Amino acid sequence: xxxxxxxxxxxxxxxxxxxxxxxxxxxxxxxxxxxxxxxxxxxxxxxxxxxxxxxxxxxxxxxxxxxxxxxxxxxxxxxxxxxxxxxxxxxxxxxxxxxxxxxxxxxxxxxxxxxxxxxxxxxxxxxxxxxxxxxxxxxxxxxxxxxxxxxxxxxxxxxxxxxxxxxxxxxxxxx
Length: 175
Description:
InterPro entries: Yip1/4-like, Yip1_dom. This protein is 69% helix and 0% strand. It contains eight helices and no strands. It has one domain (9-20, 37-174). The radius of gyration is 17 Å and the shape is globular. By secondary structure, the chain is an all-alpha fold.
């Protein structure tokens, strides 16, 4: 009877997931506390939600979503640590990269939900996809740069790979 709850034992904080989710839903917010503590429960939840929305359209993309997320996490960690090298030794952890990439995937879930009702390849779908990819890119880039003070001034170098990643997710969702 005196055992700790399972979620607490696993290190999953539902309140934190909700806070970070609502922080992601505000595209104009740039507060430092929006990033919060890192976790992978929320990102895995969003990856599963994105895959489930694709499954509703008859496409099984779980492997693509998880594979691209894993590759992007490793690549972004390497890139950011190369950009910040030579300073005070500040490095970004793999765990933090995965958390940022996963939480910033939330607008792609919105796109996948919209793609369920919008016609494939329409101008409306393309405009919505472009706006949501920009939203993902902006939030992820801001969080990555906030994590590494030595990488300030290198926004475009960080934004390009994040833009490419979320464009891949958008293409999966719209076609």
